[in-house]
# Entry
Amino acid sequence: MATMTDVARRAGVSVSTVSYVLTGTRPISEATRERVLAAMAELDYQPNAMARGLASRRSNIVGLLLPLTGRGLGATETAFVTGATEAARQAGYHLMLCSVGTDDSDELQTLATQRLLDGFLVMEVQLTDRRVDLLRRLQAPFVLIGRTEDAAGLACVDIDFEQTVDDAVAHLVGLGHRTLAYVNHSEASLASGYGPARRTAAAFEAAVRRHGVEGLMVPSDDTATSGRQAIRRAREQSPELTGVLVMNENAALGILTELRESGLDVPGDISVVSMVTSEVVADLASPALTAMTSPGAALGAAATRVLLKRLGEHDTSTYQELLPCVLEVRGTSAEARKH
# Structure
């Protein structure tokens, strides 16, 4: 593989001159520039991405801030990442996954000030998110996959949680269910201001009130065991319960197991709708989960396109795009049993 030294030797110039031709940091005569480019073509020299980006002060790399906190990527999260990665690739960019949460200010400051990354996509957004404040202060370009409480001046691409919850409640109410439970994310997520947990809690309260049915919310950690505990608490607090919404894929699997081991039929006795769920997870369950299918790949791609457009146009205006989840009826929802 040819090196910069090989190009310099073939063109009869110094290595620094080859570098200047690549980066544009110093003026080079047209004749010298043509000689260097001809040598590159003859040797099939491929400059690295960082060298190519120096001239425009761009690395062609964007960072995806996704705090993993000791857990792996689930199927739904993977769809977000896949969509963002493919949209970046199509535009000639690379995407770097950075496990940076709201408490990782020092790490984020290092990433933003080193200028290795042209911009950032921010996931797992809290209503008050310190990453947003820091990126604003550093004047680093970014787009949220999510929304803060005050989104003025921000670019946000998010799930339309209000519409998604209302559609899920309407589905169960249309099947005759009058007493519903919502198994949300954990108490800690709610307390920290995690956007999806807080928005869906408010949306569920509004939806049951609008549809004139009874509703109960129960938090659950992101485990099957917690899902089992949550549905037990819900049934204890509301014995007439016949419909369940769940915003927690691992908990959903635990709920199905607990109901089955309690001698209850799904969907004969209790219907279950899983929200913001990937098709992969829904089809793995037994019975297959009726779900509000997450637009994860489309959302990740849309956020990436918005970020790259803003980079190209130096746009800092307010932008918001909301994508709904789509109801897919499978094997866990049916008409409420008449008593």
